[in-house]
Amino acid sequence: MGKTGRPGVMFDFSGTLFRIESAREWLAAVLAQAGIDAGQDEITRYAGELERVGAQPGGTQPREADLPGHLVAAWEQRDLTAAHHRAAYTALSRLAGLPWDVHDALYARHMTPEAWRPYPDTAEVLAKLGTLGVPVAVVSNIGWDLRPIFRAHGVADHIAEFVLSYEHEVQKPDPRIFRLALDALGTAPEDTLMVGDNAGADGGAAALGCPVLLVDPLPAAERPGALLPVLDTVGGAV
């Protein structure tokens, strides 16, 4: 971290501050809500197919080499608009061969607070940054408004700015999205830490001179303290 001005932090959303539920939980919740009686083995099987094709936003991504040709452009542009995002992911879910027409319901489910788990140290780290007077932005490649997720889990007040790709039609690693966040925070790149789980996307902040800290996008219960080093990194610059 530089020491030319006040520090700031930019966080990625999915895989960094929050983690989506498992594909099995995702499918089971949708089937239950729809009143569809499915066996546990059947749910497990088709959840595996959804995961294999990368149909769950925030879950396993599809390998681009495995994408059908007609979906390549849709996948590359998925985070630029809400319509692109919905179209890409509902198209992927249709590749899983589900025996139920629940594609729209699956998409709707992933946008609910119930589908997301904050990492065990998320609230602690965000609250401590607030106490230190360090402004925080969430910078996310996404096709929908994630602010209700933060409100439902009680951490929205710790976020100064949300910079979401679909609202600006620019996505990471394009430096422009990080510049939007920096301008909103009023902090210099060398004083602003970018924390994310994807070296390709989140590492784009380095092009502006931001230090970058990468974490592993494990399920929430399996990653209790990976965000805590943020406090050490930023705290020394306050």
Largest sheet: 5 strands, parallel
Order of helices and strands: EEHHHHHEHEHEHHEHEH
Shape, per Cα inertia axes: globular
- Arithmetic mean of pLDDT: 96
- Strands in their spatial order, largest beta sheet: 5-4-1-6-7
* Gyration radius, rounded: 18 Å
- Structure classification: alpha/beta
The helix tally amounts to 11
N-C termini distance: 10 Å
Low-confidence stretches: none
E-strand count = 7
- Beta strand %: 5-15%
Helix content: 25-40%
What does this structure look like?
α1 (23-33) packs across α5 and α6 runs parallel beside α11 (229-235). The protein is built from 11 helices and 7 strands. It has helices at 23-33, 40-53, 72-76, 82-94, 103-110, 122-132, 147-152, 165-168, 175-185, 199-202, 229-235, and strands spanning 8-11, 18-20, 116-118, 136-140, 161-164, 192-196, 212-214.
Short note summarizing the structure:
This protein has helices spanning 23-33, 40-53, 72-76, 82-94, 103-110, 122-132, 147-152, 165-168, 175-185, 199-202, 229-235; strands at 8-11, 18-20, 116-118, 136-140, 161-164, 192-196, 212-214. The chain has 238 residues and is α/β, with parallel strands linked by helices.
Task: Summarize this structure as a short list of keywords or feature phrases.
238 residues; alpha/beta; five-stranded parallel β-sheet; two-stranded antiparallel ribbon; 7 strands
